[in-house]
């Protein structure tokens, strides 16, 4: 422990010259250092991408310092920690977010400009980390930002996919999927922890054994794969706290296929070893059902097993037994994807810690909380029992035992109501026996959360009614939120500056409730002028992007009307396109003097269709076909344009949202669990045209229906409308526009036939026909409002001013208090 006669730690303190400094000169030195020694380029010759790499490494150094201090602090204080388990995190870019949260954006920009680089250009060099599909995954990212900012002792755990969500390429209007090998150019934001690795077992058999005179089970695995940790520091804003997102990558274990080595088949043994890596290779695109996919089950168990080993190791470093486990550990299940962790924790406590069933179960039922993100019963995961038996034989036994105990307890409460017992059972009987993962999660969690109030009501009355009646106290909701750091400060710097100027403080970035003070200036003409200016700047940015991506020139005077989200029938992009066709048809049939009254529109649609979802892909093609006709019709000109933005992702959203005037959230009521896109638009002062679905109901409460364009059937009206659907006559306008598509007005007549069939002949499950008239009315109301610039600006300001409730800071504080029981643990500066 001595270096040159001095104690190691003293010598280290002597050598350490405090923390890295954040002034431009220090940053320049660091950037040049990384150019030379990390990127290995000459400091006299490096390009934008290399400068981005060097800058990122300089920022990462600062993150690491804070990360260390935070982890040290947590270790010292030993608070109850939250572990957020999620198979998906849609982090987007890290540089822009990190420099904002560290408070060094301007210093970086200055440092770079003196070196001859532009910060904005370098930030654009970074590709998106797209380790997730959509709302659920981006929500996880927003929640991590809030956890760090609010100083909660939390860690995220997930999978380090080598291929993120597919890239969407559009060829002739058709979606094609291309792999997203996002690690191709390296990833400066992660830290590989070669020494943090755990074996994860699969397959094999279970044997009886006796340990300390007690009977127990021993799982003899058939395959072992190594999970290696990659840490991604998540900095909080305005705090030193920097938490961790630990992602696991699969690597061959030393013991992997030892047999082949022994038999001398060296080359094949190596090839087989590499197969282990497949587990973390690729993110499953949301193809609506993963049922029966072995790799999916292996991915889930792989990340859960490694995470629990890591969590238990950390706990045992400090605690001698498991008595305090529930007081020190909260495990959050982000949907059913990590729910196998319930059986895994039970297995560890039973088979490895030998705590016995009663004690183990008492711990397990106190640590898990479960959030479900869907209302579609078909989206609730089920795993065939045969598959389970093969991949995780011991876990299946444990699940059966949990279910047996649950069924016995239930019988005592509800008697011999076999229909209900069978609905609530974790094991679904039938031709193919399945494990119902949602039922497992509800039975074993202390809390079940919905993601909006409307979602909670649906969980109670439609999706999990039996469980709600049994355990009403378990059910809660935490309306989703998004982080204002990413969705205003990073993505809309001009709006950010304007808000701070009018509020006289930047504190709203941490204390979002302050935004409400903007309300009092909503009709102030000076603010309105500046507000409009900001919108214009953002619209210009967006218009340039549209022209580059699609070649379409759009007018800045037009209303930019946006719908960006995954393509799905229930989200009703088709309703939007049919509305655009109607608008086009009306313009075409107008006299010249009538046309002068038309409010020019640029309709923007973007989103990826799940690769195996044919109807969603047809919707994309229809959008392109209609756009082709409209955009090339000189008779219509700037009065109407339709553009599809390809490869929608987090960074594209950062560009599109600030430049939008109106955004559409038009799901059939009762289908969107929450929706979070609407919250990002709201924060950016973009008006909403929406159905009263998911979290929109709460947005209406905040801003007032008079400041939005609400239309369509209400959640409770939908079932009756569906019953009546075949007898209801869709309005003539609807019949006419669908006919135009059917008759080949936009080409591809045969190809669109099945798409038209989904909304006609009594098959209009998502009620496009019955909502069409009120949709058109809402659109007309938006047109009228847009003409009155003063009113429109006032409504736009009110949107931002009313968005505080939809910050993920509020969501996280709610979870911390009502679900996880954790307290802030602030690392001193
Ligand atoms: O809760 C976050 C989001 O999750 C989904 O995207 C999901 O993946 N299930 C829902 O569809 C959204 O409604 C919800 O906002």
Automatic annotation (TrEMBL):
Domain of life of the source = Eukaryota
The molecule here is called Uncharacterized protein
Q: Which organism is it from?
A: Smallanthus sonchifolius
């Amino acid at each position: 422990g001595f270096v040159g006669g001095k104690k190691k730690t003293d010598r280290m303190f002597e050598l350490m010259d405090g923390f890295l400094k954040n002034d431009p000169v220090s940053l320049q030195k660091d950037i040049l250092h990384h150019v030379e020694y990390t990127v290995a380029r000459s400091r006299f010759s490096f390009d934008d991408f290399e400068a981005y790499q060097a800058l990122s490494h300089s920022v990462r150094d600062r993150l690491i310092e804070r990360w260390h201090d935070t982890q040290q602090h947590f270790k010292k204080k030993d608070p109850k920690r939250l572990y957020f388990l999620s198979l998906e995190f849609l982090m987007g870019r890290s540089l822009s977010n990190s420099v904002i949260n560290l408070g060094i954006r301007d210093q970086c920009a200055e440092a770079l400009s003196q070196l001859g680089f532009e910060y904005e250009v370098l930030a654009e060099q970074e590709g998106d980390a797209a380790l997730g599909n959509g709302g659920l995954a981006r929500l996880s990212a927003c929640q991590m930002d809030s956890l760090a900012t609010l100083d909660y002792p939390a860690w995220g755990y997930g999978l380090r996919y080598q291929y993120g969500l597919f890239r969407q390429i559009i060829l002739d209007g058709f979606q094609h999927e291309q792999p997203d090998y996002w690690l191709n150019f390296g990833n400066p934001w992660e830290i590989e922890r070669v020494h943090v690795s755990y074996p994860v077992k699969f397959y094999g058999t279970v044997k009886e054994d006796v340990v300390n005179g007690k009977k127990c089970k021993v799982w003899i695995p058939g395959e072992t794969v190594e999970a290696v940790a990659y840490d991604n520091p998540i900095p909080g804003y305005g705090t030193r706290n920097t938490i961790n997102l630990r992602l696991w990558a699969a690597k061959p274990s030393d013991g992997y296929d030892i047999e082949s080595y022994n038999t001398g088949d060296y080359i094949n043994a190596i090839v087989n070893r590499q197969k282990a890596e497949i587990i973390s290779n690729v993110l499953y695109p949301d193809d609506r059902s993963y049922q029966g996919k072995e790799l999916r089950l292996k991915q889930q168990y792989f990340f859960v097993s490694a995470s629990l080993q890591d969590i238990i190791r950390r706990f045992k470093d400090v605690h001698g037994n498991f008595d305090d486990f529930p007081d020190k550990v909260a495990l959050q299940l982000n949907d059913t994807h990590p729910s196998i962790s319930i059986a895994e924790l039970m297995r560890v406590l039973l088979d490895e810690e030998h705590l016995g069933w009663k004690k183990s179960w008492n711990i397990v039922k106190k640590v898990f909380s479960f959030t479900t993100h869907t209302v579609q019963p078909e989206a609730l995961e089920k795993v065939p029992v045969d598959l389970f038996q093969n991949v995780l034989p011991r876990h299946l036994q444990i699940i059966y035992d949990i279910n047996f105990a649950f069924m016995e307890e239930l019988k005592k409460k509800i008697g011999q109501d076999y229909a209900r017992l069978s609905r609530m059972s974790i094991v679904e009987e039938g031709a193919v026996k399945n494990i119902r993962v949602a039922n497992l999660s509800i039975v074993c969690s202390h809390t079940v959360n919905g993601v909006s109030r409307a979602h909670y009501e649906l969980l109670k009355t439609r999706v999990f009614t039996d469980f709600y009646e049994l355990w009403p106290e378990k059910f809660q909701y935490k309306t989703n939120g998004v982080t204002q750091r990413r969705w205003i400060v990073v993505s809309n710097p001009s709006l950010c500056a304007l808000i701070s100027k009018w509020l006289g403080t930047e504190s709203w970035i941490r204390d979002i409730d302050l935004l409400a003070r903007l309300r009092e200036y909503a009709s102030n003409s000076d603010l309105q002028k500046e507000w409009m200016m900001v919108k214009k700047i953002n619209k210009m940015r967006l218009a340039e992007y549209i022209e580059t991506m699609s070649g379409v020139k759009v007018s800045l005077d037009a209303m930019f009307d946006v719908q960006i989200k995954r393509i799905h029938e229930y989200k009703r992009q088709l309703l939007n396109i049919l509305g655009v066709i109607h608008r086009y048809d009306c313009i075409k049939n107008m006299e010249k003097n009538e046309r002068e009254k038309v409010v020019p529109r640029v309709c923007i649609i973007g989103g990826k269709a799940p690769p195996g979802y044919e109807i969603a892909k047809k919707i994309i093609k229809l959008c392109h076909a209609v756009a082709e006709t409209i955009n090339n019709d000189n008779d219509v000109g700037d009065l109407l344009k339709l553009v599809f933005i390809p490869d929608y992702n987090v960074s594209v959203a950062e560009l599109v949202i600030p430049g939008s005037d109106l955004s559409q959230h038009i799901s059939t009521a009762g289908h969107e669990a929450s929706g979070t896109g609407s919250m990002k638009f709201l924060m950016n002062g973009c008006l909403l045209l929406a159905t009263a679905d998911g979290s929109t109901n709460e947005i209406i409460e905040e801003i007032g229906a008079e400041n939005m364009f609400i239309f369509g059937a209400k959640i409770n009206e939908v079932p009756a409308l569906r019953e009546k659907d075949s007898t209801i006559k869709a309005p003539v306008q609807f019949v006419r526009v669908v006919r135009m598509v059917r008759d080949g007005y936009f080409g591809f007549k045969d190809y669109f036939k099945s798409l038209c069939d989904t909304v006609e002949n009594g098959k209009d499950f998502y009620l496009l026909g019955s909502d069409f008239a009120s949709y058109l009315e809402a659109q007309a109301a938006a047109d009228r409002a847009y003409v009155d610039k003063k009113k429109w600006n006032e409504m736009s300001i009110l949107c931002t001013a009313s968005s505080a409730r939809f910050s993920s800071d509020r969501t996280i504080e709610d979870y911390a208090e009502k679900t996880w029981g954790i307290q802030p643990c602030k690392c001193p500066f």
